[in-house]
Design a protein that fits this description.
Length: 137
């Protein structure tokens, strides 16, 4: 998909006008009420999923060391967002773009038996993703 993001447009990245002109009326006028509703949906979905599929909530990493191998670069072209912490200039950290390997490691780390699983709130970063209204900006 070609990118449709225009950095000069103050509303760049939102759905194209022709998609929004089809009679859409926002349910929430108050943006904070909308955020509360979205949080309620997220919490309810996670709670019901955990009840029905035997999942345990765990925290996931915001960044991993390059040496850990958790960023697997399966497609061979992804560039991780990297940085070196101020006090550890010999350590290269990466923002994960997938938790596939980390989740398998976490199942073992937490000692979960077959039939049990984990759920987490992942916030990854993919430098090479297309930027448009279907992705977060």
């Amino acid at each position: 998909m070609a990118t449709t993001f225009n950095p000069e447009d103050p509303l760049g990245g939102l759905p194209p006008k022709h998609l929004m002109d089809k009679g859409y009326t926002p349910l929430f006028k108050d943006l904070l009420k909308k955020e509360e509703a979205l949080q309620l949906i997220k919490e309810t979905f996670e709670s019901k999923l955990k009840e029905n599929v035997e999942l345990q909530r765990v925290s996931c990493p915001m960044f991993v060391t390059k040496r850990s191998g958790f960023n697997d670069n399966l497609n061979g072209v992804e560039r991780p967002a990297t940085f070196m912490p101020r006090d550890f200039s010999d350590v290269k950290l990466e923002v994960p773009f997938s938790l596939a390997k980390w989740k398998r490691w976490a199942l073992h780390y937490y000692g979960l038996s077959p039939g049990k699983g984990i759920v987490t709130d992942f916030r990854g970063l993919r430098c090479d993703d297309d930027i448009d209204y279907t992705h977060s900006l």
